[in-house]
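Still learning. Show one?

>
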Amino acid sequence: MSRRQSSALIAAGKRRSPSLQSVRQKIARIQTGAKPRVLDLFAGCGGLSLGFQAAGYEIAAAIEFDADAARSHGTNFHPKDARHAEARDITKTPPKKLTEALALGKPETAFDIVVGGPPCQAFARVGRSKLREVADHPEAFRHDPRARLYIEYIEYVKACAPLAVVLENVPDMLNFAGHNIAHEICEVLSGIGYACGYTLLNAAMYGVPQTRERAFLVAIHREVTDTVRLPKPTHKIILPPGYEGTRAVALKLLADSDTLGPDGFWKPIPGAEADVPQAITVRQALGDLPVINAPIELENGRLKRGARRFDIPVPYRHTDVRSDYARLMREWPGLSAPDTLKDHVIRYLPRDYKLFARLSPGDQYPEAYRMAMLMFEEKLTQHRAAGDAIEEGSDAWWALKANIVPPYDHTKFPNKWRKMEPDRPARTLMAHLGKDSYSHIHYDSVQARTISVREAARLQSFPDGFVFCGTMNPAFRQIGNAVPPLLAKAIGTELLAQIRTALAIPARKTAAAGR
């Protein structure tokens, strides 16, 4: 973010503060026991929306640019109103235009809570090299227009006068081109009447079978309370190597940027109590789903090249061995599992199924490359034994190698591949699952494949009844971009409890609001 953009952010915050009258009207509404109404910006398919809905909120509206994700959101949260399934560009959809299109009245009266996660590609360090390549400029990521979308988010906050705000992004949001964006957003929101706090939360510590770490910012209007609380972990885990280093990079600017503000804004990362259960494992998350034996499916011609559409129903396995997590995914209130799954589909990767079968859990690309070279040498030996020696460097030699060995440099990007460990949570699901899925190879060597769309959804804590619109690749992208619903539920539950306590809502009204 440039100095000019930083100044623009602060100036934007000063132009107009949320209407105090609107805030007080919303407080009075919540005190009657009404559910808080949520506006989800940059909503994707609805991970935040689903979590907040499960925590007792009403999902009133959303803005999402991607057409497939917008249809997914509308299908799951407003199935009878096609207006909610329309894709919208937030830069071309001011608040008044949105509320008019959805017949929700005025922006300042339509919503009680604003949540959302502006696109993270411009913040994430992994995306910066790509931006440099595209623009051929070492600082190109500073000028990516996606890095300005959080300003649009703040404009919505000012126009809608919510009681509370929740913003999610990658940890690098705390250290973006020398700026702590979370802190700067807190400065703006603090200046227009909000108590603010932000931290890093790991999804595995909130019942999600995935070690996904993200930055979360929570702001509550001071007419409600002067403090911000974040949810306590419900599960414990020793994070894999690398997470401490990533945290250190993200938190590098705290000493300089977080000495300002009424309470410093930064909240220490919550730690788990000793008596909470261990994190949910991959096996607990996926063990009850139908088996897809990729080598056999390929041999029998049932697995072919082409788009994977969700038009073939697959029955569940007949097993009584289900974890509590699997039961939750099947029995989620309002989204119970269908009789069959239509999105339990996988990528067509015929070169690699035999290689997947020979990898050990935890193996990454260097191990996969070495195993592939061993398999190549074994095949050459078989040819020699059959009297068909293949000369090294010949066309036949190169063709055989290409049929067995992946072409990627094994000295780079070691995390490009990973065979999941069944007794640990999965590593972070990324949006590029739609392009290769090698980062999440199934732990079962008999199935010898990458994960399906439905398995990715399970690892992200989307219940089986949640519908993803589009074909396989768009669905993978929606899942990888989403906030895990169970983590969102934890945040929403803590926020709602704090609001109710601060507003002294009687128990009978609390019960009404939870229905």
In short: Residues 365-385 form the longest helix (21 residues).
